[in-house]
Amino acid sequence: MTAAGRDTDRSHERRVKRLGRRYGVSLMKCVRPIGKVLEHGGYMLRDDETRKIVMGDKGYEFSATLDEIEEFLEAQPTGREND
Q: Which residues pair with 27 in a beta bridge?
């Protein structure tokens, strides 16, 4: 991966983390991806209050891609700040 590709990935992660804060969830990234995680995935979302996994643990841990998590968050009706 090129340096520009890594920067793009990092900025995408930062954007998704900011989006997740609106909904009270934290983006978690697999530190040492192996097997299925390398093929597809690498991320999970965890609820900040309950610490339960909201997304990314179906079949195996860190099963969601960054794009899937972003789509999931963007599809949510409102942020927690409106509760």
A: 45
Residue 55, number of CB atoms within 10 A of its CB: 18
The whole-angstrom separation of Cα 45 and Cα 5 is: 23
Question: Domain-by-domain residue ranges, the chain?
Answer: 3-82
CA distance linking residue 29 with residue 31, whole number of Å: 6
Q: Where are the beta strands (DSSP E) in 1-83?
A: 25-29, 43-47, 53-55
Amino acid at 20: G
Long-range pairs for 43-46 at CB < 8 Å and ≥24 separation? Answer: 43/68, 43/69, 45/20, 45/69, 45/72, 45/73
Query: What pLDDT shows up at residue 4?
Result: 57
Residues 16-55: tens digit of each pLDDT: 999 999 999 999 999 988 888 888 889 999 999 999 999 9
Tokens 């899937």 appear where?
68
